[in-house]
Amino acid sequence: MAPPRPGGTDTVRIHLARASRFCALLFLVVLFGKSAVAQTAYQRTFSKNVSDVQRAVDELREAASGRLPTLEGFVEPGEQPVDRYERGFYECTFHVNATPAGGAVVQASAKITAWYKDPLPARSGYRVLVSNGHIENDLLDQIAETLGPNSTVTPSAAPATSAPRSTSTGGLRPQFNVDPPASPDPTEGESSSRKGAPGGPLVPLRAPPSTFAPSAVAAGESVESMKARRAADEKQAQDLTSEIKALEEVLHNQVRPTDLAAVKKGGASIYSKASENSPVLLTASAGDEFQIIEAEGGWVHVQISGASRGWIRRTHLEMPADRAQGEANPADAALAGGKLFKVSRQETNAFGGSWEPLKGKSVRVVWVEPVSPTASTTPMQKLAFAKTLLVKAYSEVNSATPAVDGVVIVFDSADGGQIAATLSSLKQLADGDLPEAAFWKQCSLDPPESFQESAKP
Description:
This protein is an alpha+beta fold. The protein has helices at residues 9-31, 50-58, 134-147, 209-212, 223-253, 321-326, 330-335, 379-397, 423-431, 436-442; strands at 42-46, 65-68, 85-98, 104-116, 125-129, 158-159, 260-263, 268-271, 280-284, 289-296, 299-305, 308-313, 317-318, 341-350, 362-370, 406-411, 417-422, 444-446. α1 runs antiparallel to α5 and α2 (50-58) crosses α3. The protein starts with 8 loop residues before the first helix and ends in an 11-residue tail after the last strand.
């Protein structure tokens, strides 16, 4: 692996990781001083040999750590509300061991940390949360997929009996492990995918007790000395917290991935399928970012965490600029070369045509004429301009008083024509529930040859 570039993203990440590790543990020692609790491990047994399994584990290097868009669904419930936590990160470590039958057993343990914002600022800081096994199971599923069908001996991933769980139900209470390593080499038996890899701002799964363990009170130490030592520790923790925030800001301002979509407004649901009738996987908050897998109609397939994926309405997302341009409709692109039409006037009155869906009903009528009287336009260009006007008019009349039942576009030219659409069809188009081709079939195109190449004689 190439050495980190001075001043680059790698250097920032390394400093951020080091500062976060020490600051998080220092806060836990100073503020809580509780007994250490072993982190739960989840395991799965495979029929493949150790080298094949280790190779599959190594391929998870990129997915084994990263940011969590939300903590809901990934940590066990506890005494503190989840909405007090932000900037969640996870890091999963693996231990691969041979089985007597010639296979291999993989133990996965995820460490989840997040910034806790306490009503008392002095109690705010990074805390370690208890994983509910969602991340571990996702990653073990990926290993099984890499190894191929029928490679799993045990049917599902379950907590390893060798890693006892805490009897506490406070899943969001700070916890850390200061037990000494089982061997002189703290990385022995750990997946090579995590050895030497600079991680995010996460507390390591095991911290050397000589460095981070609560120091014993010296015999005969005075109360004043203890208070002074604690004050010095708290001051150091505050300084490191400030450093973390500065490094995070630097990291945020550096080059960002181009395939991330941000949630516009909190409360957006992410479904297991591209349907609102499918189960809701989680509810996203404003500003949450997800990697785009694909876009299909009014839905976007996004990666949540590890192997977890879901579908979210396109209207809930701020799409990347290059993605939005790349998915532009060909008809819209035809308009990009120049402005061909302009709106001459508009009014609201009764529909005078014989089209049954709007016959005798109140409609918004928009008259359109070419910018140049001598310019010739194609049916595709007229449809593209009409679509833009229809969507814009719908947003204006949807809550207008008095209410209207539809929108009519009248092209005032020699090769003109008239397009009429109901509000229900316009709503489906605006929400992304109706493909454009199907939308035009629900409209009145009069005469058809003015808007369809195939209808011309």
